[in-house]
Amino acid sequence: MVVDFHTHNFPAALALRAVELMLGKLNGLIVPAGDGTIDTELRDMDRTGVDCCVNCPVATKPGQFDAIFRRAIAVRSGGEGESAAQRIFQLGSVHPDDPDFAEHIRILKENGIPGIKLHPQYQGVRIADPKYVPFFTALRDAGLFVISHCGFDPGFSDWPIISGPEQIAAILTAVPGLKFVAAHLGGHCGSPPRAIDRLLPFVNCWIDTAVMCICDDDPEAHRIVREWPAHRMVFGTDYFWRDEAKLMAWVKALRPDPAAQKLIFSENAQRLLGIAGHHTVTLDALPVAGNA
Fold this sequence. Notes:
Layout: E1 3-7, H1 12-23, H2 38-48, E2 52-55, H3 65-76, H4 82-87, E3 88-90, H5 101-110, E4 115-118, H6 120-123, H7 133-142, E5 145-148, H8 165-174, E6 180-182, H9 183-187, E7 205-208, H10 219-227, E8 233-234, H11 244-254, H12 258-273
Parallel strand pairs: 1-2, 2-3, 4-5, 5-6, 6-7, 7-8
Helix pairs in contact: 5-7
């Protein structure tokens, strides 16, 4: 089984506009591989040999929890087709400034959603700020993992690094035991060489392989994939931005050992997702934010 742990899709009616808005921030730097829809994602998964993927939505405002949660349950319940229900794991997203974060984390936990996605730049938060310790503590205590954009983002090229290895280490020091997936090779892009090694002591910290396209040939990116412990790395592409086949070949060339590949492409993701417990439920049977 191959699991892509870091992908993005949107409701079909919103996908075109959402992709256009993000492209407008990139000034042509990146040409996306997909169009942001589930239908295209499933076709590309078939083409590239990806069995399952994880969709990583982002609540850019505190008030967006409910819509993201309801879509996650709708997809899981077959609302966008049986193939999507079986092959696409929709995460939740809780904005760190959400005043109801504890209740929303409880709802995700009770409904079998195993983690949330953060993107500090799009959310406008510095995740290492001590005021967010209660937020991350609640996630840890609920057993949910966090996957976060880390390091440089080409859409925010004038911003300082607000989610690099230094900031991640601060979070994991303040909240021991938090399960954290540091996307984009732990945020190495924009950080000094070997900065990601600061994360090695944190046994509940994984990285994903969604290398920025501008770093495909970067020696530091190659070093990380070759040297990072295989049991703490998950295959991720940032699809629809990047082609899954290209990233799969990139990782396999740098990490040719079959045992390491099995961990990276499948087993680590399954453990984080609790994939054996994946199930379908009806949307109407679930609690709704504000009424649970």
